[in-house]
Every structure is written in structure tokens, then in C-alpha cells.
Amino acid sequence: MVMANDAMTIRERALAYLARREHTRAELARKLAPYCEERGEIDALLDDFTRHGWLSEERYADMLVTARQGKYGSRRIVHELREKGVSEEGIAAVLPEVRENELETARAVWAKKFGTPPADAKEKAKQMRFLAGRGFGQEIIFKILKGVEES
To answer: For the chain, what is the radius of gyration of the CA atoms?
Structure first.
């Protein structure tokens, strides 16, 4: 028997969210808060989910890194992980994976967007802003543009 959305328990609602995709503890708590009057009830439920392995910060961090790694740099990915409530330990665990191919990722992102070396200082600044907005650090940006200009 399918229950109406209003009749779902907090536990059923949480399981439905987790069935769609991984969530952080903070994200799930925020989504469940409007449906529960006591914060303690949500905390107890999330503790139970963590014990059962249904709620995992590590899995969430891995999922996000996998989804973002081909488009964004480490700064942007780390910022998004922090925004979603992943702990510093969780971030530190996935950071080496993120930084491993960052230069190649930046090259690919740059090539897809621009493909040609900057013609003047204005164009160079535009390309630098683009890469910085994608979360790549200055060191990576300078390597990309220096390599392109020397070719």
C-alpha cells in the first residue's frame, strides 16, 4: 500500500531521500526538520542510519568528488563539501584524489572553453578568471597559460 506524502513517517521520508542519492548528515537533517517538531528525534534517527551504514559521509564525499572532478578544481570541490556539512576529516580523506589529476582537468576545461592562447592581456585575464571560477588555484592557472603561450 502506497502512503500519501503527508502520512509518511520521518524514517520513511529519510529513507526515500537516501534512496534517490547520498546525503550528508546536515543536509538530511535540514530536509527532515520541517516534518519533525523535535530535533532530538532527527538526531536519533540519523545516528541509527549511520550505525546501519545507510548514511555515510565518506560515500557522499566520494560521490561528489566523482561527479565534480572532471569539471572543477580542488578549491571549488572542497568549498562544496564544506557547504554540505562534510567534516574536515572527510574532506582531508578525499583531497589527495581531487588534487591528483587537477592539472590535467584544468587543461581539459581550458581547452574545451577556449582552445587558443590568449591574444592580449584582456583575453588572458578572462581565461584566468574563468579557471579561478572553476576552482583552480593560481599555480595551476599559471602553468596552463604559460604552457599555452609557449607552444
So the answer is: 21
Task: Give the residues of the chain that fall short of pLDDT 50.
Answer: 1-4
- Give Dmax (Cα) for the chain: 67
- Give, rounded to a whole angstrom, the gap between the first and last alpha carbons of the chain: 66
pTM: 0.83
- CATH 3.40.630 is right for the domain spanning 102-150: no
**Which CATH number does 8-55 carry?**
1.10.10
CA dihedral 117, 121, 126, 130 (to 10 degrees): 60
In the chain, where the domains are located:
8-55, 57-100, 102-150
